[in-house]
Structures
1.
Amino acid sequence: MDGLNYNNTLTSRLRVDPHTPGTPFQSPSVPTQLSHVPRQVPGAHFSYVMPTPPQSTVQLISFNHQASVSTLGIDLYPNPAVSPNQRLVDILSGASIPNGTHPWSLSYGGHQFGSWAGQLGDGRAISLGQVQHPITRAFTEIQLKGAGMTPYSRFADGYAVLRSSIREYLCAEAMHALGVPTSRSLSIVAIPSRKVTRENGDEMGAVVCRLAPSWIRFGSFELLYSRSEFDLMKELADYVIDTHCTDLNTVVQDEITVESLQTNKYIQWFKQVVKNTAEMIAHWQSVDYGPFQFMDVYDPTYVCNHSDETGRYAFCEQPRIALWNLARLASVLDPLILPPTCNDHINNSETESRAKQSVTTVLIDAVREFIPCFDTTFSLLMSRKFGLLTTANHDLDTLYQPILRLMHDSKVDYTHFFRIVSEMDLFDRTNETMDKVLDRLYNISTLSKSEWHANPTSTQSNDMSKSIVQRFNDWVQVYRTRMLCDYSSEDALFADTEQRRLRMLMANPKYTLRNHLVAKVIQEMEHDVTSDAVDRYLNVLMRPFDQGSDKEQAEFGGTVPDNMRGLKCSCSS
């Protein structure tokens, strides 16, 4: 990592915490004392912070060669057949700093369960440096998580436990392999001697090295706004636009009207944020690598965090929560667009009042674009899961919602269901063929075969007046009719049968991150940090659409045991 060319544009352009002075490309020989003291940090975007070195031997559990090459343009550990260079392990564990850079942690705020929490910041995350890919020129920040205290650690210790580190390391790569926008995982290092106290006692410590174009958050702007640090807000927005949104218009108009604001660079940037957020949520509806879960059985009301007692962040609430957060961000962007006098809140002229109203109108309109963008992306992704060639306005009501309700009522495994539908022959509608399909569905359901065939109770609504089997058979007919709409004739659909199957298999993973399987990996690693359990699961998760070997299918491809369904995680990590 010493050979990387660190450009560190963030620390070169933005304001440093005055209590942690320094330069972007040279680390101090002795850490600044206040860099590890939790405190409020006004008037700054970041603090220079040195990682806390482990006190004894560490173990490199896994190194992601693919992420290294694709994001950094070089394999930092090119020969896995031999032990890694100790210098590399030292850097990945926080024991050493790469040459030519000065690590930092970001200041930001945020809401927790709907309430403003004030300053949060990188409480245990320390960015080692920023580099550009030698070919694509894309920016990547290399960050250690769990490497010690920062000014933003609040009441915590700055460390991470092995358990949560393994979960994040694996999940980020699983999401990437599925095509979901996400951070990437470079490495995970276990620190057996670092005992980290959490709710269940002492646990083994670990450090994850993760990669992303940027770690700037909505809360980066919200915190500055809450402190009336409007100059810092503008500096941050200009940095983000110049570095990560280079294709946007750079115009800032003197006259502020609804019409002129359509080409304002800050409005264009916010519209892009809305679009990106809508597409991200539509892809999988979660990016939180704390208490997260891939659903075992489809349940729109499912809550994966046992701390979320009200269900605020339930699966079905994810789009609404994203929209809520966009509205919070929109509410603090006025200072980027309005003249400074408009932000004084006193003696505003009529012209300034009209300008403020124009900005509010345009920002609200931008937020409203979330729903149609989400719906469009969701419809497109669902059409791929069902092998359709086109999207239609009625698909949600006639095709997707009915089958999702049926999946919920039949309690089938969400992931396996789509793989079974992928293999279904739409032309062979004999009882024998459908019985084989149903037999496979019974095997991935928590309901018995008799419950699938049972008549519904009188309390069920009219649209649920049939047995699950009858509803599934009816849906298959609707699905077949909808498939025909994409083709000129039944012969054309029949000729495309194999291509449809392949399209669906490439849109519906066989392998997703399962909590009970991660728990087994964690248990194995806690017993023996030299185990290859993490790499075994990682190799499967990075090929989620492949059938996999017999051994991989046996270890990672089965349904979730009944006693392990709905395994929830806490915020403790």
Note: The chain has 21 helices and ten strands.
2.
Amino acid sequence: MLVAMGWSNERIAGALDVTQPTLRKHYFAELRLRDVARDRIDSEVLMKLWEGVQAGSVSAIRQFRAELDRNDLMEYGQTRKPRKAAPADKPVKVPKLGKKEQAELDARSPDAGSTLGELMARRQQGLNS
């Protein structure tokens, strides 16, 4: 299992409390299968999940589907799910005004709902024309 997890020979020997030559001498067959060790563990996990699916375990079914999706992505050479396409017509964000800009804008456009505001609006129109 340690080979499948990608551990180096030095690290495995340290975990088993043996020297590297002893590790190579007694576990040479397992070390030789370094390339397929991960696939073997993955296949055993999938078999256990499949047994759970056959037994009707909902969590096993959910996990098995996730593993199927992961396997399909690996089969097509992808490492993650493709992104969804961005919507074509995104609304353009209007930049927010700061306090000072908003106050200046409010000061330049008088309130037309009051008598004083209407008079100020007429006066500004007369000055601008």
Note: Residues 96 and 102 are 9 Å apart (CA to CA).
